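Note to self: keep these together.
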Amino acid sequence: AYTTRVGEGPFPTELSDEKGDWLREKGGEFGATTGRPRRCGWLDLVGLRYAAMVNGLDSFVVTKLDVLSGLETISVCEAYEYQGQRLDYFPSSIEMLKVCTPVCRQLPGWQEDITGILAFEELPENARNYVLFMEEQLGIPALVVSVGPGREQTIIRDNPFSL
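Structure:
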């Protein structure tokens, strides 16, 4: 539901502020072995579209949707800006990516605790719309949505093995 990165390298949507700290703490974004904090940022649709294309994805899974509960608005990177130009595609070089800035759309958040919800239709409207927005932007369905760390906190929208 948001982006994380371990180690060095460009991360256009990285949040180096209290929002990033909030996501890191709420999402438990610390290395399992080292305990080092992961870098956190807004969902990067440019990177996701590229990953879906090069990997031939026909569906995807949304994890940690529950972490976004409590936010008034959620930023989603829908393009990059590079030297004053809008890029709707992933840059061809690391050097370009290093200087890209995110072009974000603001989506309404939700306040409800969703960790006990077992059906997609029961999610708050804004949480459903967030997932539907991702599907629309990626052009493929989200078959599974996790709303907490437990296996039982997984909403199966469609069997991933039936595709």
